[in-house]
Amino acid sequence: MITYIPDHVQQGLARLISQYQSATQFKTWLSIYLDVCQDIENCFWEILEKRNIDSGIGVQLDSIGLILNRPRGGLVDDDYRIALRCEIAILRSTGTADDLFTVGSLAIPLGYTFGLTDMGDAALLVTFNQIPAFNILALFQAFFRAKQGGVKLLFLFAPVADSFIWDTDVEFSDWGGAPVGGKLLCAL
């Protein structure tokens, strides 16, 4: 873990051995050198903080999104942080159930849950029972991008009384016009 040290000069002077405690010129030279070290640490620390998903804001998050190829798309900073974390999980995914669970957990706001069931024959069923206050197709797209090639993804969405199942066999387009690889299989 990286730790910020705000007092290089004081720490450096406190570590002097006894024979240099009274050497005024040496302490002055050492203070100048340690002050430059402090300036360098302050500069790097500021870069680390501003280029961090947790503490970055505005254009700093946009820069991270540019690296990840995940545009903001009108999201506010807090929602964009979720999208960036989800994108990192998607890019790191090997398609395992654990990876899909991580992606799903990052793709939905706090308070929502989903189930992930291995259906055998390279098929996964994702069940989602709450009424979402977010774009459910964006969640489907995140799962689709994180799964392994050749694995069928069934996405069961059951809002109040009606249920919908999306299947990854035939492509359809989402709100951005990009194919996300699914079709509405049936409405129950």
Question: How would you sum up this structure, described in words?
Answer:
This protein is of the alpha+beta class. The protein folds into three domains: 8-50; 56-92, no CATH class; 95-187. The protein is 44% helix and 14% strand. The protein has six helices and five strands, in the order αααααββαβββ. The chain has helices at residues 8-14, 24-50, 59-68, 77-92, 97-107, 136-146; strands spanning 115-120, 123-128, 152-157, 164-167, 183-187. Strands 1-2-3-4-5 form a five-stranded mixed beta sheet, with helices on one face. Strand 3 and strand 4 (164-167) form a beta hairpin. The two termini are 50 Å apart. Mean pLDDT is 78; it is low at 170-181.
Describe the secondary-structure layout:
Blueprint: H1 8-14, H2 24-50, H3 59-68, H4 77-92, H5 97-107, E1 115-120, E2 123-128, H6 136-146, E3 152-157, E4 164-167, E5 183-187
Helix pairs in contact: 1-2, 3-4, 4-5, 4-6, 5-6
Distance separating the two termini: 50 Å
Counting structural domains, the number is: 3
Low-confidence stretches: 170-181
Shape: elongated
Count the strands? 5
* Largest sheet, strands/sense/barrel: 5 strands, mixed
- Radius of gyration from CA coordinates: 25 Å
What's the number of helices? Answer: 6
Secondary-structure element order, as H and E? HHHHHEEHEEE
Give, in spatial order, the strands making up the sheet with the most strands.
Answer: 1-2-3-4-5
